[in-house]
């Protein structure tokens, strides 16, 4: 895959690329230093856009190192029809925004971070990402033949707002950080821990190429994080030592409240056609519950 990736960029003189972080991580796993790509001329390549899922900071840094171009993330949903946040260069947004953000608000959107009691949270505090109504033109107007579900799912919990069902936070400069779906926030003994934040900490370990974190049921704490990790090619290290290092990395970056101790090394993580992790199926598998393998959550590589 990595050879075809760089060859296509070079052969067709690609100026800008729009792709999912999963594709980048797959290339990095097979060729950590992008040695195979160095034979291709990428002088016309100017910008790399990532989308479709959260891009961890380590993957972002790798992209900048290898491609030597601005790497820009943004956030939108099928329901909205257009970006909610982005790096709008024409509006003066920076080409070098802070790592981990998905940009600033696009005109037409008023995003607020609320807790479960419908109260605004402090800056850099994880909460529910909602959009103050009305939504701008182009956003969805309903669900096919299911008006009741449309109202219940998106507008009932936070009256006056569209519930994105995503969790994240805003910084002092107005950058939005989308961490995970609300369902992917793991409640560990009363502490709300983002699966995305744990994945980012795990991926910061030099040996890890890809990672998925889900909540495993625990009698004492309710749930605890459970990580599935894919290693980079050529990694030769004792597994027990590696697992200890990964656990220590999460403890250092997230804190002991995460109660993170369970890591399993796997060859590949299943992804949907759009590159997303089928977390509900993985969580069911980890917890010994029935799960369904569909056309959308088979392994696509």
UniProtKB/TrEMBL annotation:
GO terms for cellular component: mitochondrial matrix. It catalyses: butanoate + ATP + CoA = butanoyl-CoA + AMP + diphosphate. One of its GO terms (molecular function) is acetate-CoA ligase activity. It holds the Pfam family AMP-binding_C. Its EC number is 6.2.1.1. It comes from the Eukaryota. Belongs to the ATP-dependent AMP-binding enzyme family. This is Acyl-CoA synthetase short-chain family member 3, mitochondrial. It comes from Micrurus spixii (Amazon coral snake).
């Amino acid at each position: 895959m990595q050879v075809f990736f760089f060859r296509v960029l070079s052969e067709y003189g690609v100026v800008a690329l729009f792709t999912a972080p999963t594709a980048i991580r797959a290339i990095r796993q097979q060729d950590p230093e992008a040695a195979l790509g160095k034979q291709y001329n990428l002088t016309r390549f100017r910008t790399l856009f990532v989308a479709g899922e959260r891009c961890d900071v380590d993957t972002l840094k790798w992209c900048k190192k290898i491609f030597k171009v601005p790497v820009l993330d943004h956030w939108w949903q099928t329901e909205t029809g257009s970006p909610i946040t982005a790096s709008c260069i024409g509006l003066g947004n920076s080409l070098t925004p802070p790592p981990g953000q998905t940009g600033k608000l696009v005109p037409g959107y008023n995003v607020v971070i609320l807790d479960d009691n419908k109260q605004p949270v402090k800056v850099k505090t994880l909460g529910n990402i909602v959009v103050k109504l009305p939504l701008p033109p182009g956003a969805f107007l309903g669900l096919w033949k299911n008006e009741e579900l449309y109202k219940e799912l998106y507008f009932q919990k936070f009256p006056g707002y569209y519930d994105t069902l995503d969790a994240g936070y805003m910084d002092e400069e107005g950058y939005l950080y989308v961490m995970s779906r609300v369902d992917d926030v793991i409640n560990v003994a009363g502490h709300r821990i983002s699966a995305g934040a744990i994945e980012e900490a795990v991926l910061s370990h030099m040996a890890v190429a890809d990672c998925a974190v889900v909540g495993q049921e625990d009698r004492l704490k309710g749930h605890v994080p459970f990580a599935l990790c894919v290693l980079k090619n050529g990694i030769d290290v004792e597994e027990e030592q590696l697992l200890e290092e990964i656990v220590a990395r999460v403890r250092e970056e997230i804190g002991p409240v995460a109660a993170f101790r369970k890591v399993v090394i796997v060859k590949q993580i299943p992804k949907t056609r759009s590159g997303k992790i089928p977390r509900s199926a993985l969580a069911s598998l980890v917890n010994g519950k029935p799960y369904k393998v569909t056309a959308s959550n088979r392994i696509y590589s």
